[in-house]
Design brief:
mainly alpha; two-stranded antiparallel sheet; 7 strands; elongated; TPR-like_helical_dom_sf; DNA-binding
């Protein structure tokens, strides 16, 4: 897939998608009609409906050019291709995004990744989009949204969508629609509610004075009798009048023109148009007929269709005649015909019996050569050659697809191809099988991959081996997504063993999958070996995206080992490889590197920079529909929980879960990750029963002989479940069970090389032992933890350090001096007046832990919050509170705080 061509495609499309054509030279202004339209801006809908040639579009242009302040407009010129509701709504959303930066990002991803075999709730999608628009700051100017030539796209589904839009139109947004027929909407209801201003044929007809002004302006030196007959017969039809005047300028036979005024309006129109066409040279007539089928064209495309080099001067000549072309960009490169004119041209082409297949295929080749694959595929399908469309897709680089893992465009093209064609060649099966698997559409991917069996046995041994290897690699990837560890390992291992080094992208994904399974199994040494093989393969390939993916996998293993600084260096190495990638395109691996950089920075205690990385990573992952953004949402939720902002924490998880639902991601990918973070939040809130119930369910699922495989983005999830079970036991007052679980977890994690998880468990064991008065044991555990933290993982220590500053101050001061110890001491608050633990006014001094509890009582914390902050059981908090009251000689908390202040203890 050529990046340069893809980029030019985006630029060309953007240049013409929302371009409002200028008013044609010699346009007759309609100020009274514009005033009526402007008066209707207080409603919801401005509707201009009339037959062809009555100046609907020109009036809409004039209305936009004369909008009163602070209004501005967005112009969408529609075509037959917009009859697909998905395409129309995508164009609508892209236009709105030009008005509001960052608006509708998730909605755009959903729309681009919809699948034909899955029903799509357009109205629900539109409702969520309008809610998001309504929630935006409304400081900017109100917007007039123009849908020009709606009749070209009109259909049952699109009518329903637009009716829904009208019913729920946000404040500051008004719709202007031009159409040859009245749309099938509830117009009477809108009119009764004074939300509709409608202009029809009788409103748009030129008055006698206007017709005379137009005739004089166009310089027609006609006899008075003929001019009078013309004005009477045209009945205010502006296109007919213009065409007749144009024909009259070039005609030497006024009598023939006069006869053309007889008959009904349809005959007059056909006569006038044909008269204009017949007056053109043979070259121009041939040009018109051979390009009439195009929805848009430029000189280069017309040259390719006609096998000529004179299209540019012909286009300039047509422009000079004022009634043929509509410009589509400011550069004057792209045009379309006036629909009135193109309709007649196409009818003449059909009557002549000239086949269009060859023209469509020529256009297909030209669009393909320009990298405009959407239009190339459309032309192939219109030619009745879906196999040509399929061949265009087949020419895409499978390696680039696997490297970028941005499958949106490929799945959009899939909707334009017959389902039977997707399984017509092994190449298409493999390409779309991977696209579906990367999009987590596992059932569809597996069903498609099974179709490879139809092509076995292959014509020769090499082809047979290649097909088998491709099926094994894809099947292994799908099995990993399903959590089927045994099949995933077997398929990926066999794919690697079967040779076929030309399928390097698939081999690298197999290595990545096996490394992830090794981490989940606790075999970090094997994972490191597989990472090394993957990096060597990627470097031989010379593909920076694959090489960055290998660095990302290496960083994940190093992080599990507690080597956070080294992991961050790997992330930076991967990001350096991608530094030259275009910012306007989106890459899954770039998103993953940003997300993991954020995670590693938070482990180092740098939350501010880490959260900025999460924001960038989540944004790009949403554009690619990459579920790695789960990591970002989960860590942001945990951060909000540490700040006691539980509403924000659960909101982060709800957004992650909403995305997974909307992307139709199987729960095996995300449900356990989100539920585990919820358990952490419930524990912090004191909702122990809720946390206990869900931790038990998670433990049942991910432990034992029939244990499910840990999800791809949380391969150590079973060990984290044990960590929270230990915390639950402590908060329930069962410190003995909590200690057993923590010691068992430390031993298991260390035996697997999972030092980071061991560090988290050690810090919690230290607090548990310290709270029980077992200072010697606690000090030994702290020493072990500090050794692991030398790798850069400070956050597990900082979390508890902030909750129990005085407990940690004494413990750290008792440790051997060193840079890490001094750094941690630097995080502790400086005590300007240290809390006295002895006082002549107290018969018995407060202990260090009692002082900690008293300080939190003074800050307004509840007993449950104190339990969470100090990592001691609720029962222990209550015991300390009773001792404090007894020593201070008071009965209530408020009295204790007041007495402590009197004694200088606070």
């Amino acid at each position: 897939m050529n990046d340069g061509l893809a980029g030019s495609s985006v630029m060309i499309e953007a240049a013409s998608s929302f371009y409002r054509p200028p008013l044609p030279p010699g346009y007759l202004s309609r100020p009274q009609l514009c005033q009526r339209l402007h008066a209707g801006l207080t409603g919801r809908l401005l509707l201009i409906s009339a037959p062809a040639g009555f100046g609907k579009s020109s009036l809409a242009i004039e209305c936009c050019e004369t909008l009163p302040a602070p209004w501005h407009s967005l112009w969408l010129g529609l075509s037959a291709r917009d009859a697909d509701p998905g395409r129309f709504l995508e164009r609508l959303l892209l236009g709105l995004r030009e008005q509001r930066a960052g608006f509708g990002e998730e909605a755009l991803v959903q729309l681009r990744l919809r699948q034909r075999h899955q029903p799509f709730a357009f109205e629900q999608w539109l409702g969520e989009l309008l809610d998001e628009w309504q929630a935006l700051p409304q400081a900017s100017a109100p917007l007039l949204l123009v849908l020009d030539d709606y009749h070209l796209a009109q259909g049952e589904v699109l009518d329903r969508c637009l009716q829904f839009l009208l019913n729920h139109l946000p404040q500051g947004l008004v719709l202007l629609v031009t159409s040859r027929q009245r749309p099938d909407w509830h117009l009477a209801r809108l009119r009764l509610a004074r939300q509709l201003l409608e202009l029809q044929e009788q409103d748009l007809r030129l008055s006698d004075a206007e017709m005379l002004e137009l005739a004089r302006a166009q310089g027609a030196g006609l006899p008075a009798e003929l001019l009078s007959a013309l004005l009477a017969r045209s009945e205010g039809w502006v296109a007919g009048l213009r065409l007749w005047l144009l024909a009259a300028q070039e005609s030497a036979e006024p009598a023939l023109l006069e006869r053309g005024l007889q008959g009904d309006q349809g005959l007059i129109r056909d006569y006038l148009l044909e008269e204009v066409i017949e007056r053109q040279s043979a070259e121009v007539q041939g040009f018109l007929l051979r390009t009439a089928f195009l929805e848009r064209f430029c000189a280069e495309l017309c040259d390719a269709l006609r096998d000529a080099h004179d299209s540019q001067p012909i286009i300039a000549q047509l422009q000079a005649n004022q009634v043929f072309l509509v410009p589509l960009d400011e550069q004057g490169r792209w045009f379309r015909y006036h629909h009135l004119f193109s309709d007649l041209l196409r009818n003449r082409l059909e009557q002549a019996g000239e086949p269009l297949v060859g023209l469509h295929l020529r256009a297909c080749r030209w669009f393909s050569g320009q990298g405009l694959l959407d239009e190339a595929i459309d032309q192939a399908l219109r030619a009745g050659h879906p196999e040509v469309a399929a061949s265009l897709v087949q020419n895409l680089s499978e390696e680039q697809l696997l490297a970028e893992q941005n499958v949106g465009q490929l799945l959009r093209w899939k909707m334009d191809l017959p389902d039977s064609l997707l399984a017509s060649t092994p190449r298409l099966i493999i390409l779309y099988g991977w696209a579906l698997a990367l999009a987590c559409q596992l059932d569809a991917a597996e069903e498609l991959s099974d179709c490879l069996a139809r092509f076995l046995p292959a014509r020769d041994g090499a082809s047979q081996q290649g097909l088998l290897q491709q099926w094994l690699a894809l099947s292994g990837f799908i099995a990993r997504g399903r959590g089927d560890t045994r099949r995933a390992e077997a398929y990926c291992s066999e794919a690697l063993a079967s040779g076929g080094h030309e399928q390097a992208g698939q081999r690298l994904l197999c290595l990545s999958t096996l490394a992830n399974l090794a981490v989940a199994r606790g075999d970090l040494w094997r994972a490191r070996g597989l990472n090394r093989d993957a990096l060597e393969l990627a470097q031989r390939m010379g593909n920076p995206l694959f090489e960055a993916l290998a660095y990302y996998d290496r960083a994940r293993v190093l992080q599990a080992r507690g080597e956070v600084r080294r992991a961050l260096a790997e992330i930076h190495a991967g990001q350096a490889l991608l530094a030259d990638l275009p910012a306007q395109r989106h890459y899954a691996i770039r998103a993953r590197l940003a997300l993991y950089q954020g995670y590693l920075l938070t482990l180092q205690g740098d939350w501010q920079t880490g959260e900025a990385c999460f924001a960038a990573g989540i944004h790009e992952a949403r554009q690619c529909r990459d579920i790695s953004l789960l990591l970002g949402y989960c860590v942001l939720a945990r951060s909000a929980g540490w700040r006691q902002d539980f509403n924000a924490a659960f909101a982060q998880l709800a957004e992650a879960e909403r995305l997974m639902h909307s992307w139709d991601v199987p729960p095996v990918y995300y449900l356990a990750m989100i539920t585990l973070v919820k358990c952490e939040l419930w524990l912090a809130q004191g909702q122990l029963e809720m946390a206990a119930a869900w931790l038990a369910r998670l433990a049942l699922t991910y432990s034992g002989e029939e244990a499910a495989a840990a999800p791809e983005f949380h391969p150590q999830l079973p060990l984290h479940i044990q960590l929270y079970q230990a915390r639950l036991a402590h908060l329930q007052g069962d410190d003995a069970q909590a200690e057993r679980r923590l010691r068992g977890l430390i031993g298991q994690a260390q035996s697997q090389g999972g030092q980071l998880l061991a560090l988290i468990a050690q810090t919690r064991l230290f607090s548990l032992l310290q709270g029980a008065g077992r200072s010697v044991e606690a000090q030994q555990v702290l020493g072990d933890a500090l050794q692991v933290a030398e790798g850069g993982a400070l956050m597990p220590l900082l979390e508890l350090l902030q909750r129990q500053p005085e407990t940690w101050r004494g413990a750290l001061q008792a440790c051997a001096p060193g840079p890490l110890r001094d750094q941690l001491l630097g995080y502790l608050p400086v005590l300007s007046s240290p809390l006295p633990v002895t006082s002549g006014n107290l018969a018995e001094p407060l202990s260090g832990r009692e002082s900690d509890v008293l300080r939190l009582i003074a800050q307004g914390y509840s007993n449950q919050q104190i339990s969470e902050r100090l990592f001691i059981s609720l029962h222990t908090v209550k015991t300390h509170a009773r001792h404090i009251n007894s020593k201070l000689g008071v009965e209530r908390r408020t009295q204790a705080v007041a007495r402590a202040k009197e004694l200088g203890l606070l």
